[in-house]
């Protein structure tokens, strides 16, 4: 362990950049091996233990448990401020159809590129072993990115960032919407806040031939489903991105002539502004309760809070883009969407940036499979691209800290 630098000069950072990229190259073949082993043996959210163990061993530094199945460690100066680098551990319940000989055949799949992120983090940390890092580097192997309760929220709640005096958090995610060789950062909001809405309607069932004797929650549910987009229109300025999508409706027991007593829906609510995020639930409640009343049933509305808006710190983004350019990587158009990533919990505490690393290989006519698709498989070069992005992110965070 080296002692912390107080003020790394620009020359020192450039030299560190050069040395780190040089040290990265010999680590990439081993990292690719890690990628294949992780990919071949995927584990779902909350059950990532074997993956965490494999990757922690490959990192070559002491790692401690965090957020149940996660791990965190530290390299560089063992005291003072640090920069957090995040990689996710979990796979998805997808039947892999890539056809590679290291494909998983367990009904679980790394279909979101987390195998690539983990391998890249291994290469970055191993390459840093003999370097003179100005700030601590805290690699986090984060569980449960794909489900609730959020792994990032648990990492934050564990006090890890306070213990390591974390000054910035860096995330990188492969993205098939960005051409290979390019990286999309973008200042400000890049992903939405994501919350769930559950509405349960309770009425009085009966015979389908005698609806006038029943209090039918199905009709009320139908009106509520159609009314939810209107809630957004009536609550949120059209200049703000927001949406509600109903993903699940349930009523009855597969019988045509039995009116059920209960009906239920689940919807996802995506917002990009805190005021909208607070205002919509009240209006949803109003719509559901009054529609229910109109149909003689009652409504129970529950909002299940998810992750906050993913906000890329503008000062950090500017510096990340600068380092990317020095690496010969083209910073490209931001990938803003109403997708969500729980990396945003780190951004609530410290300046953070999520970088979308391009994996779309040009020259293919076929549109590449999207994230979470059974054939999503970034090329091996993605490991090096993500690793270099994380290194650039670390250097940007050092600059920001010492400005
Ligand atoms: Zn992902």
TrEMBL record:
Organism listed in the record: Ornithinimicrobium faecis
Name the UniProt record assigns to this protein: M20 family metallopeptidase
Signal peptide: none
PANTHER family the UniProt entry points to: METALLOPEPTIDASE, PUTATIVE (AFU_ORTHOLOGUE AFUA_6G09600)-RELATED (PTHR11014:SF63), PEPTIDASE M20 FAMILY MEMBER (PTHR11014)
InterPro entries, sorted: Amidohydrolase (IPR017439), Bact_exopeptidase_dim_dom (IPR036264), Peptidase_M20 (IPR002933), Peptidase_M20_dimer (IPR011650)
Domain Peptidase M20 dimerisation: from-to ranges: 197-292
């Amino acid at each position: 362990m080296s002692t912390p630098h107080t003020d790394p000069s620009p020359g020192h950072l450039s030299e560190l950049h050069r040395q780190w990229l040089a040290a990265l190259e010999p680590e990439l073949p081993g990292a690719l091996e890690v990628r294949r082993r992780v990919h071949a043996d995927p584990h779902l959210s909350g059950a990532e233990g074997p993956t965490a163990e494999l990757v922690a061993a490959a990192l070559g530094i002491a790692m401690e448990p965090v957020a149940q199945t996660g791990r965190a460690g530290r390299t560089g100066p063992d005291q003072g401020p640090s920069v957090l680098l995040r990689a996710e551990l979990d796979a998805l319940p997808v039947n892999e159809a890539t056809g590679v000989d290291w494909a998983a055949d367990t009904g679980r799949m790394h279909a979101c590129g987390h195998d690539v992120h983990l391998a890249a983090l291994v290469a970055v940390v191993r390459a840093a072993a003999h370097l003179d890092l100005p700030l601590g580097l805290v690699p986090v192997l984060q569980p449960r990115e794909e489900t609730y309760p959020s792994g990032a929220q648990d990492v934050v709640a564990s006090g890890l960032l306070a213990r390591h005096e974390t000054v910035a958090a860096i995330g990188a995610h492969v993205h098939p919407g960005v051409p290979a060789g390019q990286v999309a950062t973008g200042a400000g909001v890049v992903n939405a806040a994501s919350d769930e809405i559950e509405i349960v309607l309770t009425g009085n069932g009966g015979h389908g031939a005698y609806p006038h004797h029943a209090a039918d929650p199905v009709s009320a549910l139908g009106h509520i489903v159609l009314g939810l987009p209107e809630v957004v229109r009536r609550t949120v300025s059209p200049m703000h991105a927001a949406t509600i999508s109903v993903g699940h409706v349930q009523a009855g027991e597969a019988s045509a002539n039995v009116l059920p007593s209960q009906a239920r829906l689940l919807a996802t609510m995506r917002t990009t502004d805190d005021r909208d995020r607070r205002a919509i639930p009240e209006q949803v409640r109003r719509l559901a309760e009054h529609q229910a009343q109109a149909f003689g049933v009652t409504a129970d509305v529950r909002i299940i809070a998810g992750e906050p808006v993913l906000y890329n710190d503008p000062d950090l983004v500017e510096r990340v883009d600068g380092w990317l350019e020095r690496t010969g990587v083209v910073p490209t158009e931001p990938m803003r969407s109403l997708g969500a990533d729980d990396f945003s919990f780190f951004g609530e505490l410290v300046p953070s940036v999520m970088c979308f690393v391009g994996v779309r290989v040009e020259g293919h006519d076929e549109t590449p499979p999207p994230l979470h698709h059974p054939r999503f498989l970034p090329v091996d070069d993605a490991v090096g691209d993500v690793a270099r992005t994380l290194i650039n992110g670390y250097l940007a965070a050092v600059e920001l800290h010492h400005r």
